[in-house]
Amino acid sequence: MKYSFTVILYLLVSPAFGQVTENYLEGYVVLLNGDTLRGKVMDRDVSAFGGLLKKIRFKPHKGWKKRYKPGEIKAYHRGEDNFLSIWLSSESRFFRQDFYSRPGQGEQVFIKIMHQGSIDLYHWEYTDEDNSTVDFIPLLKKPEAAEMVRATQGILGLKRKRLAEYFSDCPRLSSALLNKEITTVNEVIMIYESACLD
User: Which of 69, 151, 154, 162 is deepest in the core (most CB within 10 A)?
Assistant: First the structure.
């Protein structure tokens, strides 16, 4: 009886562990000194009670496995995705949350790069505590600015007033936002890069 319980427990638990080990993808890490190490990277646990890992796991092609937290590397690449290590802080006031990336302020986090150019789009991923799934907050940032702006509010769509304020230096974009002429973050980026730059 004791033997059959052990076998049943193993069969129930082993698929979850199998999924974790299969979640390594080809990639690399960029160290603080700028060196790039190639190998396989895992940053999330896809098992039933998984989510984002606090430290990414890196298996070099040669050598020992390592774990890195955001303050220990500059960036990493996993599969098709690129992540940057940045300082991120937020301030809440009057039903509004502002985000900033200032060295030494807040906490260091990994942030997924969705677009880089005259305006940057990042996804700040987090684990939803209710169902252990990975969700994200889309943040737009002008390259030289410390302030970042949340682009959408879930199913409510674009944060039009907040985005119009953030892009007040571009009347064409602010007007398109307030007049509901655009509905997606990609349109915000497209108009900014085509109509708002000198």
Answer: 151
Residue 145 in domain = yes
Q: Mean pLDDT score of the chain, rounded to an integer?
A: 87
Strand partners for 129:
none
Mean pLDDT of 150-156: 85
pLDDT at 112: 97
Domain match, 191 and 104 both: no
**Burial letters for 58-81: b for 16+ Cβ neighbours within 10 Å, e otherwise?**
beeeeeeebebebeebbbbbbeeb
What residue type is 114 in one-letter code?
M
Residue 5 lies in a domain: no
Residue type, 65: K
Quick one: 131 and 182 in the same domain? no
Q: Which domain holds residue 166?
A: 155-198
The whole-angstrom separation of Cα 134 and Cα 52 is 7
Q: Please compute the mean of the pLDDT values over residues 23-30 and round it to a whole number.
A: 95
Q: Cβ–Cβ contacts within 10 Å for residue 191, how many?
A: 21
Same domain, 198 and 143: no
- Number of Cβ within 10 Å of residue 33's Cβ equals 6
DSSP 68-118: E-GGGEEEEEETTEEEEEEEEEEEEETTEEEEE--TTSSEEEEEEEEE-SS
